[in-house]
UniProtKB/TrEMBL annotation:
It is found in: Cytoplasm. InterPro entries: DTB_synth_BioD. The keyword Protein transport does not apply. Its cofactor is Mg(2+). The gene is bioD. ATP binds at residues 12-17, 54, 116-119, 190-191. Coiled coil: none annotated. This is ATP-dependent dethiobiotin synthetase BioD. It comes from Colwellia maritima. Homodimer. Pathway: Cofactor biosynthesis; biotin biosynthesis; biotin from 7,8-diaminononanoate: step 1/2. It catalyses: (7R,8S)-7,8-diammoniononanoate + CO2 + ATP = (4R,5S)-dethiobiotin + ADP + phosphate + 3 H(+). Mg(2+) binds at residues 16, 54, 116. Belongs to the dethiobiotin synthetase family. One of its GO terms (molecular function) is dethiobiotin synthase activity.
């Protein structure tokens, strides 16, 4: 059993697309793959449940018969920072709940467990106060979603959003992951925007030299509006080098 946590240099870097493509790549190898997205913000109410589109997309590629709440146990309606969304509904985010959800995933005995993070590596789960709500939280120490990855000792896959500033963001994120005592096992160059980065190839070459980990894939922006997201993900799945992940 292998456990991978997918993080990124920033939000909207394409973590879900990468997670789905990786899931499909493993499924293509006849692997049993379970997915986990512990926290989402930005959901629609469907039959009494808050459904996040990214979590739903993950559910359509995994092959362990998970329901949406098993995949995404903590969901908020507003597309804002999760700790602020939680404060607005008077809810406390805690590591125990997130880790329990992960334990439930492990019970499925999949070959591969893929967890998709939220935002970047240091996503806060609590705060000392939310001034706009006049709420004072009883917090003595900030906690982050990365603490969950550390506690569960998952290997990390870093999605680099290929845009201006990505070299700094990628290196700082990688160094923080290593400082946290985890193994960052590979990275993905993802062109998440239709606005192609200037000197893209040169920047990717720089990252290949600066990051001492293998590049698992280079994903281009799929601009064809006539092609479904599922088809784009299946196409991307064939571009991954899974060798470092199966070693």
């Amino acid at each position: 059993m292998k456990n991978y946590f997918i993080t990124a240099t920033d939000t909207d870097a394409g973590k879900t697309f990468v997670a789905c493509a990786l899931t499909q790549a493993f499924v293509n190898l006849n692997k049993k793959v379970a997915v986990y997205k512990p926290i989402s913000a930005g959901c629609q109410q469907v039959n009494g449940l808050l459904i996040n589109n990214d979590a739903k997309l993950l559910s359509e590629f995994a092959n362990c018969d998970q329901n949406i709440r098993e995949i995404n146990p903590i969901a908020f309606k507003e597309p804002i920072a999760p700790h602020i969304a939680a404060a607005r509904v008077n809810r406390e985010l805690c590591l125990n709940e997130i880790e329990q959800g992960f334990d439930n995933v492990l019970q499925l005995k999949a070959d591969i467990n893929l967890t998709e993070g939220a935002g970047g590596w240091r996503l806060p789960l609590n705060t000392f106060s939310v001034k706009s709500l006049s709420i004072k939280a009883r917090v003595t120490k900030p906690i982050f979603l990365s603490d969950f990855a550390v506690n569960t000792k998952q290997d990390i896959i870093l999605v680099v959003n290929m845009k201006l500033g990505c070299l700094n963001h990628a290196l700082l994120t990688y160094q923080t992951i290593i400082a946290d005592g985890l193994n960052c096992i590979g990275w993905v160059a993802n062109s998440a925007s239709k606005n192609l980065m200037s000197n893209l190839d040169d920047n990717i070459e720089s990252l290949e030299q600066l990051l001492p980990i293998p590049k698992l894939a280079q994903l281009n922006y799929y601009s064809d509006t006539q092609t479904s997201v599922h088809s784009k993900i299946c196409t991307a799945a064939h571009t991954f080098d899974l060798t470092p992940l199966l070693a």
